[in-house]
Amino acid sequence: MKKSVKKQLLMNKTGDEIQVALVEDGRLAELIIERPESRRSIGDIYLGRVHKVIEGLKAAFVDIGQKSDGFLHFSDVGTTNEDYRALIEDDDDDDETVVDETGSGEDGADEDDASVEPEVHQEQQGSRQSSRSGGRKPQPRKDDGAEKRQSYTQMIAGKLKANDSILVQVIKEPISTKGSRLTSDITIAGRFMVLLPFGGGQVAVSRRVVSRKERARLKKLVRSMLPEGFGAIIRTVAEMQEETLLKQDLEKLLAKWTQIEEKLKDAAPPQLIFKEDTIISSVLRDSLTSDVTEIVANSASIHKETLNYIEWAAPEMVKNVSLYQGKLPLFEGYGIAKDVESIFSRKVWLKSGGYIIIEHTEAMVVVDVNSGRYAAKREQEENSLRTNMEAAREVVRQLRLRDIGGIIVVDFIDMMDARNSKKVYDTMKGELRNDRAKSNILPMSDFGIMQITRERIRPSLMQRMGDQCPACGGSGVVQARFTTINQIERWLRKYALQHAMKFQQLDLYVSPTVAEPLKNSDMNTELKWFLQHMLFVRVKQDESLRSDDFRFYTRKDSRDITAEYGDL
Prior knowledge:
alpha+beta; Nucleotidyltransferase, domain 5; CATH 2.40.50.140; Aminopeptidase; 4 domains; 6-stranded mixed sheet; 23% strand
């Protein structure tokens, strides 16, 4: 029998920053942070302008007013226009249509994820495909699928033209230099259902609703409420809910869509048409389940917003909501302040005495597992297994806590017994089931390497909340200052060889860490360089420079000549 987990939602407001923590059995499991300069954009709807269409990429780049153009893949160009709908030939969906709540899209998001963003589009596509076949398996020719995909690609490329206006929704936030990922299959997420404005009357139910009787009841109810042309995905939390609550939720969603239609009448691209709910409403909508035993806010305004939402969505849980009155800060009072601080640490200690190191690279996140202490040879396998099992649980916790997505590679401690490797794999797989984000995992290789992919719809928490180190440029290592001095001396030799005039006067700017050995060497450095190269060089400190950087200026006209006479 699965052990029940005690969950708490802690809502902390400090200045303009809002932090929402999900605590499981006294330990921080997830942390959502929002600042005015980094508001989440998942679910936002824009009237965009097509910037360019690249058929080779099967994608269009759309200007939505952000720093970088959004990326709209042809597979995300939905059936929202009549030109596209002609390919579909929608029929009414079969009563057995099932939505896989674990997701099946590119990122495999859970249907109950933060705001039902990319997964809604994927599920919508899945249900459409099911309805098109009428529950029967199609019998195409061998190359029929490829021909249809090619035809679809050409048709989309022909319909999307530069400077066209298009209604799109953000399904992935900008990450690094990449713009937002967009879709034109618009969805609006509610508490009990997700509205599909162009759903064509289709209704799907979350797979987690297992009772056939309840599934049929929910479908019948929602179908009777939906206006013509609209579709819906019924969420897990709708199970056993009264018709009144479902109707209220649908009315709210339809009101939002009416506002969108009104705003579109006078809109000019690029323009934001619809902004997702506040962080508080979004978290409550997607994290409020029956096992949440306590909801605490340290702000009167957040407390009021929380109460208003819960009084409508889950009145039986109003008693669990409270305004924090403690003398210590909220996170300190609940003992999770250290967990929050650990998010920015490379090293995470394990109870066994081992530790994991988390390193971010451009392409992936690498996790190294270390035992941390010596074990006798006869106990080595047992010790390695114990450390690896604990590390597997902690790695998943850190992935959730730091919101790490993309490719994750875990280097476990080597083990000799293949059965032990299977135990670690099963542990990791079991822990990932508790993660709302969809993941894929491969068994441990002979080298002790395990590969994981986890959905990524926004930059990790560390990327959003941290600044790149000015000293190391994000590498975590700075060049030795004597290496920089050697580079400076090579530059001077090259300059002296290429420059005919002697006795030139130059100013050398370096960081204080490099200036220190130059000024304190046994022989005066400036005199040494004069004797070697017949150049008057004056060393100056510049705190804005890194230890691996230097700049040469002509003293006469203060011209930077560093790049002219040497490689930086």
